[in-house]
Amino acid sequence: MKTVTDVEALERLYGFPTKPSVLKVVDHIHPAYRPFIETSPFAVLATSGPEGLDVSPRGDPAGFIVIEDAHTLLLPDRRGNNRADSLRNILTDPRVALIFLVPGVNETLRVNGRASIVIEPAMLERFTFEGKQPRSVLQITVESVFFQCSRSLIRSELWNPARHVPRSELPSNGAMLAAISQDPFDGDEYDRELPARLKTTLY
């Protein structure tokens, strides 16, 4: 199978970035980019570590990732499954990447930087929500920021309700766990208990 193995071949295949593609990259949270972060209720966090790569969804009410200043973002780490894959990676490789999505908007915002895991009590207190503090807050030093054009979301029709897939058309969480498990696992019971568990453990 023919593959691309060097930068020269890649550039012959794709050409070079257009002027706007280069112009849009800045090393800080530019005022023009702030609204994408302030109105986003959902972001995807990418990290890298000794065990490989990880990409993790992060969500909360819009503006949950705080712009501390033009070079710093604060991301509370809310309750999850305790795998802590992203945090484990950051301990050995602080490089992170974020993509911010705004419902109904086809452009996204990309941020690259370096993160540290903060557990200072005053910092955790700042991010209390519904009476619960995060266990930690990621302090992200911004290195580059740019918007991603709308093509991928237009092609996917991500925000088109007519394209939304009923959850019932996909395997349930319990069904997937039962299929994967090497030991007997009651997937039906897991599914029955999941809604109440999510409600009481969201934060």
UniProtKB/TrEMBL annotation:
Residues 30-149 form the Pyridoxamine 5'-phosphate oxidase N-terminal domain. SUPFAM superfamilies: FMN-binding split barrel (SSF50475). InterPro entries: Pyridox_Oxase_FMN-dep, Pyridox_Oxase_N, Split_barrel_FMN-bd. Pfam families: PNPOx_N. It comes from the Bacteria. Coiled coil: none annotated. This is Pyridoxamine 5'-phosphate oxidase family protein. The lineage of its organism: Bacteria, Pseudomonadati, Myxococcota, Myxococcia, Myxococcales.
